[in-house]
Design goal:
The protein is an alpha+beta fold. The chain is 47% helix and 27% strand. The protein has 2 domains: 4-170, Jelly Rolls (Sandwich); 189-282, Orthogonal Bundle (Arc Repressor Mutant, subunit A). It is built from 9 helices and 10 strands. Helix 3 (144-188) packs across helix 4, helix 4 packs across helix 5 and helix 6 (221-239) packs across helix 8 (256-267).
Length: 282
């Protein structure tokens, strides 16, 4: 997978120009037969639903879906039977143009294909829709200042796209490290586990880890670990004749009385009462 950082690095070496932009609505019975796309274009779905097939791969075109098209892509599109579709489009050209070590490097228009191309799902499409709308409105005006504003807005649009994709990767990484600590708790709940231990596994500070964990799991790490231990204790109390001290130690508590207090706090009844009312019949 191409990283957003590589995309941004390439975009910083390009000079862009808006060629055409606008808003389109296609009715429910619309169908565009396969064709070879000839321009660099951005399509951002605003409303409705359709199917876009890009180079043989079908994509659901719905609000929040972004398509960055390059010349040579083979495209087929059609709307769903029950609803039309609305989308913004921005057609643009670009040329290589950047400064490196005091020397300017330049190339012909469309010298290389952009790394930012294909179909993407945007988490926060509203800023992108606003930028597309502004670019479309500027197409109705003329003048050098308008051309500059168009170019600035196109750069803002491209920046918003990269920032959204980068945010998705950060979120995905965060979810991965949180799940890693959950797996650790599930497999080591019988050990002495502290908040600092879990934060170290995640590679985060304890306070930052706690905030992210609560956002992801809906509870604090300590509460989650305690719940795991109590669920296991309930199983042991129901299915075994273990002594209370042995059960406490098997789920990570060296103090039987502390375990009893935590159990009653979490479950609402004492371990002995729970065992008496829930123990399975022989």
């Amino acid at each position: 997978m191409i990283r957003p950082g590589d995309m941004m690095r390439q975009l910083n070496q390009m000079n862009f120009k808006v060629q055409l932009a606008g808003h389109r609505r296609k009715e429910a019975d619309w169908k565009h037969e396969p064709y070879t796309h000839r321009f660099n274009s951005i399509w951002l779905i605003a409303k409705g639903k359709a199917t876009y097939v890009i180079d043989g791969v079908a994509h659901a075109a719905e609000p929040g879906k972004l398509f960055v098209m390059a010349p040579g892509m083979v495209v087929q599109r059609w709307t769903e039977d029950s609803q039309p579709i609305e989308f913004y489009f921005v057609r643009f050209g670009y040329a290589l143009s950047y400064e490196e070590e005091g020397r300017w490097v330049a190339g012909a228009e469309s010298a290389e294909r952009l790394l930012l191309s294909g179909a993407y799902t945007i988490q926060n499409p509203l800023p992108l829709l606003h930028a597309c709308e502004q670019i479309s409105e500027l197409m109705k005006q003329r003048g050098q200042l308008v051309l500059m504003r168009q170019r600035i807005l196109l750069l803002e649009l491209l920046t918003l796209i990269i920032a959204d994709l980068r945010s998705q990767i950060v979120t995905g990484h965060t979810n991965t490290v949180i799940e890693k600590t959950i797996d650790y708790m599930v497999n080591h709940y019988d050990k002495d586990i502290s908040l600092d231990d879990l934060a170290d596994i995640a590679g985060l500070s304890p306070s930052h880890y706690s905030r992210l964990f609560k956002k992801y799991a809906g509870s604090t790490p300590v509460h989650y670990l305690t719940q795991l231990r109590m669920d296991r204790a309930k199983e042991l109390l129901t299915l075994s004749d273990y002594r209370m001290k042995a059960i406490a130690q098997s789920i990570g508590y060296s103090d039987e009385l502390y375990f009893s207090r935590m159990f009653k706090k979490m479950v609402g009844t004492s371990p002995k009462e729970y065992a008496r009312t829930h123990k399975a019949s022989p």
